[in-house]
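Hi R.,

Here's the chain you asked about this morning:
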Amino acid sequence: MSPVVPHSGETCVKVSLADRSYDIRIKAGLLRDIGRSLRDLGFSGKVAVVTNATIGRLYTQTVQSSLKAAGYHVTQVVLPEGERSKTLRTVSLILDKLAQCQFERGSVLVALGGGVIGDLAGFAAAIYVRGIPFIQVPTTLVAQVDSSVGGKTGVNHAVGKNLIGSFHQPRLVLIDPDMLKTLPTREWIAGLAEVIKYGVIADEAFFSYLEGHIDAIRKMEEGPVIHVIARSCEIKASVVAQDERESNLRRILNFGHTVGHALESLGGYRKLIHGEAVAIGMVLEAELARELGHCSNEVVSRLRALVKRAGLPDALPPTTFPKLWGAMQHDKKVAQGRVYCVLPEQVGRVVVVPLDQAQFKRWFSERRRKPSQARAPRSSSWSATAHRT
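And here is the predicted structure, written out as tokens:
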């Protein structure tokens, strides 16, 4: 599967889901054409732009001007910022505004922001009058390569991340790489974790490309940046098309997230931002895979080296086994009381396995005693089911 590149220079990746199919359009300056893009989809009437204050100051005028020029009546909904705002209380703010402005099923909601805004706006769109269409306009790298694609929406619960939500596919994803230039450096670097993830789970050649171009990517050179966005979207679109609701194959997209989400939760969503937690999670889950005989030390070394060259953290923050294991128990990937984890077998191929508490505890204790010692892989008694790709 290759992205389509129209004559306009725009890159387009299609997410194929029968009557729920949609395009991911990628082009610098695309934000200015949002009004025409909605018109091309046949929408008319009211549009609500959901954003936060920081994003609003940067892009609201451009978005509203384009929408109004296309004939839309525009309402703006400004939400609190940060992962801690992903709550049902915040979703209610969106629903209240939609109801007050008499939005109907044919009205459109635009998610203008990062992953938090996309999740909140998408969930509100999924449940308002039992579902209205929405458009994703992701402004962060994490959102552009991952969270804006695939239809996962939702909010956090006090005991775990993303425990409340629904699948609600967007009608369109508009990606303007120019918006990445306004990201704080920490947010930009954090987004590279999700990019690296795609190379590990599905494409060794892409991982090698990242190894060879990570310096140019960190400098935000346009060509490499557009390539990594397009390829990441392409991989995710392919996985989502085969398994929309994460019943099987789509679980591979959770590489790094079993440990990563637990670390976010343990830090109260204040200490680590999502990409940083995923980076640590990927390295630790690769270490675990090596310990249990799923992969070689070379896989761990290559991954750790790329994570560090990208400027991402790779070390487990201070915690205890009971705290970490307890947080993992509340992850949405738990099934029938068992925690499932994605482990690499080689760069470009992974397997999903149920975690055994005793083995995980032994690994955790051993790495605490010898955190820098690389151990040779040994055989595992885990039943490695699920998917390789």
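One quick note: The chain has two domains: 11-183, 194-369.

Cheers,
M.
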